[in-house]
Amino acid sequence: MRRNTETIRSIARDPATGIVTIIDQTQLPHRFVLVPLTSMAQAAHAIRAMLVRGAPLIGATAAYGVALAMRADPSDGALAGSLDVLGRTRPTAVNLMWAFARMRDALARLSPSARPDAAMALADAIAEEDVALCRAMGAHGVALIDSIARRKAGRVNILTHCNAGALATVDIGTATAPIYAALDKGLDIHVWVDETRPRNQGASLTAFELLSAGVPHTVIPDNTGGHLMRQGLVDLVIVGTDRVAANGDVANKIGTYLKALAARDNGVPFYVALPSPTLDLTLASGDLIPIEERGGEEVSHMSGLTAQGTIETVRVVPDGSPVANFGFDVTPARLVTGLITERGVIAANRTALVAAFGDRESRAA
Ligand code: MRU
């Protein structure tokens, strides 16, 4: 995996063979395995089992899932049926419904015979657009890092949570886009990477991609951020998001809210990188965002690489202790310093969001 992945993206379709390929993220950072997707069922499984994850990548994979469904059967029934299957995979990331709505609206207007090629072309376009959105967020967000670098002597310390990087998108990432742009600009940066229990997307994925890209970083247990902020060792927080409501409330990986609280208490700016497909203007507030609850085994067990080179899963909770596994939390807009969008850095409130994105179509499928 490289950051500027003209050759290896988180999802890609080979123009010659037409094969759609993903990286199996469940095997990272220990094994780099590419997996072909040849059917909608495989795309749905990849999303549900988190071979792919991260809101923008879930959206792109759903788009290819619809395209694969159309290749097998371009009928109206199959188009509607693809929502039944794909739409139930992951509830919080609105990009999935956004991508599906876009595919459905375009394909429903076409005759069935025209749908297979048009669907693949539109899925390709959605993937390419995601790369462009991330680059634009990087260009806007790097100014925040640059202004801190100008104010202080020494490196700029950025804290991030979960993986909102190249692996959560088609390429470049949302929260990482300004970080990569800062690196390209020669700014002296360092990233605190929250491990992000229970699935460890920070330790496994963000660390993996920052290491590959040569970004100085340190992995920390999730509970460390508050301590670092009190010590003056965090200059800003940048996280991604799975859905932003019309009032600017932000759903993101569980634990994000606690980082926002600590940031507010310590006067640390807290930014959220938001590509417009993650905006849900149909929801008045974050209270209405569905929060995914995942299987308890993600909490009760952990996987890792043994000294023998095998990947093993072990139990870390007493057999019989109940566990809870809420995938996401909502950070109230009042704790968000700003939203880094493809159209600039804006305030996290309805007025700013409607002014910037009111021209965009509804996100509901
Ligand atoms: O459960 P995941 O791994 O899909 O959660 C991902 C996150 O919470 C990311 O921070 C979010 O999707 C933003 S990705 C650009």
Characterization of the model:
The chain is of the alpha/beta class. The chain is built from 11 helices and 16 strands. The strands form 4 sheets. It has a 7-stranded mixed sheet, with helices on both faces. α4 (95-108) runs antiparallel to α5. The longest helix is centred in the middle third of the chain and has 37 residues, at 115-151. 5-S-methyl-1-O-phosphono-5-thio-D-ribulose (MRU) binds next to α2 and β9. The site of 5-S-methyl-1-O-phosphono-5-thio-D-ribulose has 17 residues, from α2 and β9.
In short:
By secondary structure, the protein is an alpha/beta fold.
What secondary-structure arrangement, pairings included, does this model have?
Layout: E1 11-13, E2 20-23, E3 34-37, H1 40-48, H2 55-72, H3 76-86, H4 95-108, H5 115-151, E4 156-160, H6 176-184, E5 189-194, H7 201-213, E6 217-220, H8 225-230, E7 236-239, E8 243-245, E9 250-253, H9 256-265, E10 270-273, E11 279-280, H10 297-300, E12 301-305, E13 311-315, E14 328-331, E15 338-341, E16 344-346, H11 350-357
Parallel strand pairs: 4-5, 4-7, 5-6, 7-10, 8-11, 10-15
Antiparallel strand pairs: 1-2, 2-3, 8-9, 9-14, 12-13, 15-16
Helix pairs in contact: 1-2, 2-3, 2-4, 2-5, 3-4, 4-5, 5-6
The site of 5-S-methyl-1-O-phosphono-5-thio-D-ribulose (MRU) has 17 residues, from helix 2 and strand 9.
